[in-house]
Every structure is written in structure tokens, then in C-alpha cells.
Amino acid sequence: MTTRVAIDCDDLIRACALGDRSALRALYELEASRMIGVAQRLLRRRALAEEAVQDAFVSIWHKASTFDAARGGGRTWVYAILRHRALNMLRGERRLEFSDAPIGEEQASEDDDPETIVTQLSDKAALRRCLQGLAADRRAAIVLAYVHGLSHSDLAIKLGMPLGTVKSWLRRSLISLRECMG
């Protein structure tokens, strides 16, 4: 038996796919307060939770046409989007918190190619030496993933490689870097 909330979410998402802004507003009114609570448990800060919920609703609006009720309920789909966004925010924070870059060092631009970024590292830096020990394509994969923040899927598309290959390259390259830096 399907609950009324599930039916409402499914219908509202389908309406969003058709461009109905009032459906998005209704979905927001139906789920936003609960979503903020879920996001706050993951992110531990109200402001970040609100940002995650806002980003989730933007994604819901843009991806509503991909919703398939046969694969799961609308409410489940909405919360999966929220969870994904919150976890990405946590990953981004961890990257910032543990950055080894000296204060004042220029940040990489999204327009910089991986080779430019590697050459901008300090000549004395062990990381540069270790990165240069990797094959150029693997070095590019590491830089694109960890400097530009590309997901494995985005990286596979950008490099024109199978997803499994990209994951293997990253894993092996990180092992090599760890050994080199060790």
C-alpha cells in the first residue's frame, strides 16, 4: 500500500519534469523541514544543511525528468539527492581542512591543465617529485580528481576512458604517491 506522501512526491516530481514551478514549491513545503533535519545530522551545521537542501532542490528541478517510479518512490529519490549533495559537501570540507598548501599560495584555476598545476608546485616539494614519477595520463587523473574535484564518472568522460580503468588508475596512483611520500 502506497502512502499519500509517496503519491504526492511522485506526482510533484513528475509535474516538476513538465516545468511546473508550483509543484517544486509544493514539494519544498512538503519535505524541506524534514530534509533540513536529515542534512543537519550529516553536516552538523544548520547553515550547511540549508545550503544542501537548496542545492538538492535545484538538482531535483533539473533532474526531475530522470525520476523513474518503477525504480523507487519519489520521496526516496529526493532524499538520495539530498544525501549525495551533503556527502559531497563533507568531502569538499575535508579537502579544505587537510590542505597542505602554504598560505598565500595561488589556487589552481579550473582552466589550468594538470601539467600546469604540477609545474606550479614548489621545486622542493616532495609531492611534485612524486607526481612527476607517475605516467602523464595518471598524473592528469590525480590532479583532475583531487585539485579540480572531478568525480570518477566525470573523470572517465573527460579522459575518454572506462570508469573501471579510471578508478584503478586513481587507486594505483595514490598507492604509488603514498609510497613515494612515505
Global Rg: 21 Å
For the biggest sheet, the summary is: none
Low-confidence stretches: 95-106
Structural class: mainly alpha
CATH-defined superfamily of the largest domain: RNA polymerase sigma factor, region 2, helix turn helix motif
CATH C-level class of the largest domain? Mainly Alpha
The CATH architecture of the largest domain can be named as Orthogonal Bundle
Question: SSE order, as H and E?
Answer: HHHHHHHHH
Shape descriptor: elongated
| Number of H/I helices | 9
End-to-end Cα distance: 57 Å
CATH topology of the largest domain: Rna Polymerase Sigma Factor, Chain: A
Number of strands: 0
The proportion of strand residues reads: under 5%
Helix content estimate? over 70%
> How many domains?
2
Q: If you average the pLDDT, what whole number results?
A: 80
List the helices and strands and how they pair.
Elements: H1 4-17, H2 21-43, H3 46-63, H4 74-97, H5 114-120, H6 126-132, H7 136-146, H8 152-159, H9 163-181
Brief overview:
The chain is an all-alpha fold. The chain has helices at 4-17, 21-43, 46-63, 74-97, 114-120, 126-132, 136-146, 152-159, 163-181.
Protein described:
The protein is built from nine helices and no strands. Helix 2 (21-43) runs antiparallel to helix 3 (46-63), helix 5 crosses helix 7 (136-146) and helix 6 packs across helix 9 (163-181). Residues 95-106 have low confidence and may be disordered. Helix content is 72%, strand content 0%. It has two domains: 4-97, Rna Polymerase Sigma Factor, Chain: A, CATH 1.10.1740; 114-181, Arc Repressor Mutant, subunit A, CATH 1.10.10. The protein is mainly alpha-helical.
